[in-house]
C-alpha cells in the first residue's frame, strides 16, 4: 500500500517488506565463563552501568539479544540511504556527570542544539488570515514574548514568571535524580546501622524542601494536579497552553485533565545540554551514536559487550544468591551480581526463577501500569515539509522552525483530551497529537542530499484495539495514512514527498525493543510508580528480594527518558554491596 501517490510504505514485521539495514555491533571482548558483574541488555542505562562498574574495577560483561547495541537509543538505516533514530529521537535528560565521567565527547559524541526548539502552526481556516499564525519558542525570552503576544499580551507578560517558577522546581528535584531513593525496606526492617545509613538518603529530599521554601504548596499542586489546572492559573491562550501541555502527556496514556500529569511535564523540562538548562538537541549520526560513545567508554576500560546473546534466565544458587546467567544458546556465565536493564516485568516474571521471589512482590510487578499511547512513525522524504504557517525558502534549505519539535493538532488542550478519549474507547485518535521532528535539518549525515528523515511521535493509540481488531498491516497503514492526512493539512505536499515509512505501534515497540505495552518508560511515570514506589514500594533502591539481582533500567528510579541516571545510580549501589560481600 502506498503512503502517498508514490514510494514505499511498510509497517514493521510484514513479511512482504525488505529487511532493514542496521548498524550491527561487533562484539567487544571474548566471552569468558565468569565475570564480576553481568548486565542484561545493552540499552543506554545498561551501558552506563557497565561503564561505571568497569571504571571502578568491576569486571563487567553486557549481553544484548538484538544485533545492535542501544536498546531504544539506536540508529537504523531502515530505508536505503536514510538513517533513523528509530525509537528515542531527542537528547536532553542525560545527566551532566555522565558526559564528564565517561568522557563521551572524547569517545565521539557530537550534539546539535536546537534554537528555536518548539513550533506550533495553526490551521485557522476561514479566519481571513492569509498566512495562518504559529507559535515559535526558543531561548530568546523577548522573542518568545513577541510570539505569545499574537495570542495574548497577558500571557506574554506571564511567561517569564512561569519559566522561572518551573525552573526553580526543576532545580529542587534535580538532586533526587542522582541518588537512590530512601531505602524504605532498610529503614523498616534493617539493623540499627542500616536504619541510620538509610536516613542519610533523606538529604536530597530535605534539600528540595529548602529550595522550594514557602512556595512548597504551589509546587505540590504542579506534581499532583491536572496540567490544565496548573496552566489555567498562568495563561489564557489555548495555543500556548496546548503547546506546553504536550510535554505533560507525551509518552503517557494520560489526558491534560488527568491528575498528576504535571510531573511528566517537569520530567521533560528538567534536562539540559552543554550547560543550557532545558535545552534539547539531536545527536550527530542519530541516537545510536550516543550508545556507541557510551560503549566505547566502557570497552576502553575493559568491559565486554556482546550482541545477539540473549539471556534466557538468571541463575540462583541453592543458598538463594544470584550466581550468573544462562544464555539462550545454553552457555552459562557465572557472576557475583546481575544487573538487568530489561523491564521489571521481563526481569522478574520471565528471567528470574519464580520460587526465589515472594508472591506479593511478583503480584505487584505483574500489576504495574504499562499502558502506552505511542505509535512512532519514521518517514523518509525527498524535500522539507512546507508549512502554510511558515512557507519554505525558495532554495528549499532548512529554516529555523524546521529544527524544532513541531506540534500538530495542538492548537487547543481540548483536542488533546479528545484524542485521549478515543484511545480509552479502544480507537486510534481521530486527530492524533503529533510531534514532528526533522533531525536532518541540522545533521546532513542522516539523509541523501536534498532529502530528509522525519520522526513522528504520535498518540493516542491503544495497545488493544476495540472490536477484536489487531494491529495488522492494514490497521498500521490506516492509522499512518490518517496521521499523514493531518500533516498534509498543515503542510500541503507532504504526502507527495514520502519515499518510505516505518510504523511502530505499541505491540511493535514491545516486540522489537522490549518495552512492555510499548511504554517508553517501562512503566507509567505516575506518582504511585515513582521514587519510593519505583518499580514497587520497598524495592526502589535498585535491589530486589533476590540477593545479587539489581534493576538498572527505566523501570527503576528515576524513570524513563534517555537519562542514564538509573544505570549510574545502580552501579554505585552494586559497587557498595560488592565491597561488603
TrEMBL record:
Q: Which SUPFAM superfamilies match?
A: FAD/NAD(P)-binding domain (SSF51905)
Q: Please, which domain of life does this record's source organism belong to? A: Eukaryota
Native organism: Puma concolor
This protein's major location comes to: mitochondrion
Physiological role? Probable oxidoreductase that may play a role as regulator of mitochondrial function.
Question: Amine oxidase domain spans which residues?
Answer: 266-385
Identify this protein by name. Answer: Pyridine nucleotide-disulfide oxidoreductase domain-containing protein 2
What does the subunit section of this Swiss-Prot or TrEMBL entry state?
Interacts with COX5B; this interaction may contribute to localize PYROXD2 to the inner face of the inner mitochondrial membrane.
According to its record, what are the GO cellular component terms? mitochondrial matrix
Phylogenetic placement of the source organism: Eukaryota, Metazoa, Chordata, Craniata, Vertebrata
Q: Which family does it belong to?
A: Belongs to the carotenoid/retinoid oxidoreductase family.
Q: Which compartments is it annotated to reside in?
A: Mitochondrion matrix
A Pfam family assignment: Amino_oxidase
**Annotated GO MF terms:** oxidoreductase activity
What Gene3D superfamilies does the annotation carry?
A: FAD/NAD(P)-binding domain
UniProt keyword annotations, A-Z:
FAD, Flavoprotein
